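pinning this so it doesn't scroll away 📌
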Amino acid sequence: MTDCIFCKIVDQEIPSYKVYEDDKVYAFLDITQVTKGHTLLVPKEHVTDIFEYEPTLAGEVFARVPKVARAIEKAFPEMQGLNIINNNKELAYQSVFHSHIHLIPRYGKSDDFSIHFGNNQAMYSSEEMQEIAKKIKRQVEK
């Protein structure tokens, strides 16, 4: 894709702080550095988001996440945890439309990063939960 910033980074047209590269993926520091070591892992093949992945590409890309995660952990032994995030579509905070995985090291509760999971359990009956599960299961089995 000619106008994609991540494709340009992969093709070395735009500089980056590369941490890993092989024939399928390219990993580099996120320029925002939400926390020290915040890394992005992108497939070299342009796919917009998770919905465009073929199974083989998904396996190849996601299989590299632990390798890069372990490298970050070894590089920063003071790290206390790691968030792995993949945003898909604008409403879900995707801002660059070339699929990418964020690896965000966590050093303490005062990091400039947070995630909030609301608890809406009381809004759904057991029957509604079963119906939601059935709808998804039917689609998975197609």
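📌 and the second one:
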Amino acid sequence: MSFSSDAWARNAALYEKTRAMPFNQELASGQLDENAFRHYMIQDAHYLVAFGRALAIAAAKADHADGVVQFADAAKGAVIVERSLHAGFMKQFGIDDATFEATPLSPASHHYTSFLIATAWSAPYPVALAALLPCFWIYAEIGRDIQARAAQPNPYAAWIDAYAGEEFHALVRAVIATVDRAAEAASAQTREAMHQAYTHAAQLEWMFWDSAYRQASWPV
């Protein structure tokens, strides 16, 4: 069994909890509170900068030239291409630059970004990739799942279409293939560390959406 197949099977129940959580159910129905979506967009824009940094570190650690290009391009996509989508959403939902800049990372966002950057810096290349994989893969699967049952018209259609689209899914398939290749050459100990990193990142994906739904902030 490939690493990715094994990781998905080990975390299938967690994915189902993520798929069924209120944020994603209400996003599909078009009934998600706009304030929750605004919270999500601000936090995700902050997150993508850190995600891009972690991808850039992974590119520097890559064991093959193709990996350098793959993850350097993914870092560029995270910081530039996807943030252009956010800029459109922020304008649509009335989030100005001052509001964005004045809003700090939420506790869940801070935890997730700190984990990714720390893992990218300190862990072996295969483990760093495993930590980054859930953000790609879970978003792709959630995007397709929501698109299949989304109410029409839907105020969040652009977000849904971005993550359900073939361009994003092709990127995700390429990342999965690279992670599996890295896992094939890894020791059993490293593969288990990859599984731990994947699961923790998948848990943080759930926490990120849950935090947005609750519009969570620092309690003190």
